[in-house]
Amino acid sequence: MRSPVLPLTWHLARSSGRRGLQSQLLAAGAAAVGSFLLLVMVAAALGAGTRADHTTWRTPDAVPAKRATAVQATTTTYVRDEPVTVVNLAQLPGRKQTPAPPGLGGFPKRGEVYVSPALAELLHDLPAKQLADRFPTVRSYDAIGAAGLASPDELVAVVGRAPGDPAVSEAAGEQNYYDDGLTDRAPVAGFAGTEASLFTGADQGTVLLGVVLLVMPVVVLAAAAGRLGAARREQRLAALRLAGGTPRQILAMTAVEAAGVGATGALTGALAYVALLPALAALPYGVGAWYTGQLWVGLPWLAAVVLAVTALITVSAVTMLRQVATSPLGVAQQADPRRTRAIRLVLFVAVLAYIWMSTDDGGQLKARQLLALLALFYGAFWLFGPWVVDRLGRIVGRRAKRPATLLAARRLSDDPRGAWRTVSGLVLAGFVAGFFSVTLGADGAPHQGQVAVITANAADARHTAAKARTALHEAGVTATVAVTSEDEYDSLLGGVDGVTARVFGGRESVDAAVTALTPLGSGRYPVTQEYASASDDTVTSRVATVSAATLVLSFLVAAASAGLTAAANVLDRRRVYGLLRLSGTPLDVLDRARIRETVIPLGVLAGGTTAMGVFGAVQLNKAAGTTVNTTGALQLVLCVVVGALAVFAAIAGSRPLLRKVTAGPVQTSD
Prior knowledge:
By secondary structure, this protein is of the alpha+beta class. The protein has helices spanning about 5-15, 15-55, 115-125, 205-225, 230-240, 245-275, 275-280, 300-320, 320-325, 330, 345-360, 365-400, 405-415, 415-435, 460-475, 505-515, 530, 535-570, 575-580, 585-625, 635-650, 655-660, 665-670, and strands spanning about 70-80, 80-90, 115, 140-145, 155-160, 185-190, 440, 450-455, 480-485, 500-505, 525-530, 625-630. Strands 4-3-5-2-1-6 form a 6-stranded mixed beta sheet. Strands 9-10-8-11 form a 4-stranded antiparallel beta sheet. Strands 7-12 form a two-stranded antiparallel sheet. Helix 4 (about 205-225) packs parallel to helix 18 (about 535-570).
């Protein structure tokens, strides 16, 4: 016999009326947003790893001298405060031909210069004395293809050298404490390196940090979509249950309806992601914009996200109907006070204790451990939130002196899970704001405007100083030149013999000074403040970018989730609101009760999560071995205020809907 589930589900969906259609459209929209954001997060995480893989060939993978076919010396220079990665290559005589590096048509011959498209454009735009004169003079530059670049905006040059050129000598590869990841030299036989560039190696970790902090608000939004129209669905299916429908049929009908709406929305979000790939690729991160292919997650990930969002919405809808299957008469009479148990508090305290012990053992946690602890904290707080809301409702209800407050307290205690879902997005966003208000810090730039040349010893430094004065004068750069000894640890060279020029003028003068002093470096480019602080600045800039994106998205998602839940609550409670209006309750009182239903748990819970976010940021700084930037208090207050206003605005947006559903109290209270 043919199952009646599908035909009956389709009939009920079509006959649900305009308000039923509104709930379905809102649910599909939330599913689309959730699917789109999840795909973007997956794309950013995978793309960051792909970009890092495209830079591994630049780090010399040393081989025994007998097997080497070439010498590779990779270093970094700066122009317009942006890093330029320079790979110097020299084919060893009498050895077999070295394969071409990724993105190059062949191994560069002596005097050949390959440059990335972005660097070629910069070489054309800037005066030669600011950049081009740092490289060998050529008639034209060959191009580096996308296979050898992490970004279309990346500045990279590959220079062919003679084996005896100073740029590939052992002196060019000698490292000081600030050279790690910026300068290296080794005999090589190919370009199958495994260590990513300093400028891309930390990208995936910071993206994953943002993903972990943002994924829960997105999940909240998707779960809220599954609960849209829950009360209407409960009443309708409870009647079917009383009419003889089996629990399996009731749950199957709910699952089919929710899955259809969720799949439609999730597919829409996936199609939006595909259509917007070129626009997403244009967004800068780290070394610049993306190649479109780097952000394509592939069909397996696309299908997995669509199925995950659909499953989340389906499970969320089905779990709301457990009472329909077990006690349909109670649901039909709306006799379902949804209490929470104290076991939630016990589990939450246990998780906090575990996190505290894990981060306070005197050692530094790895990034993956911190990410796992953040995910564990999110899960624990999601379990703990409804319990707090339940208790708040009871406490406020006993002390309420105004009708609106009493109504709000009753709603909090009668349906703590529903009230928690309204504020959960902003509560978890408060954790994100607190986390990023104390960001990774650095010690500043004490040597800004200085250019230094490393020398072999103090005697060479004195001779180089005279040459430096002449070179700077000929280049038209105003600067004072001083000899730096190995005892001056507070200098730009940090206790290394050399010459330091303090340049007067702007960024253009510094670039011209670097170019003028390049021939004096015995194969090494002059050092600037950006070079010396690159390791710290790279991490802090990535965290700053991720923090800004995560804060904006988390608060937008929180506002959308709150507005969506508020609208759903109005539709689901229209019978209750109609009865209250029939009893003489003013519309303003109902509206104030809705607002207080949000303000009361928000004031308590958001403060706690924000403080915990600050604690998590301090632990991350400890793990990274960096200082703490405590100047983010104003940013924190601003984020919380703006986020709260956005949520209240989203809730206020459902006020016309409240007025509409209570406009005809006789009909709406049926």
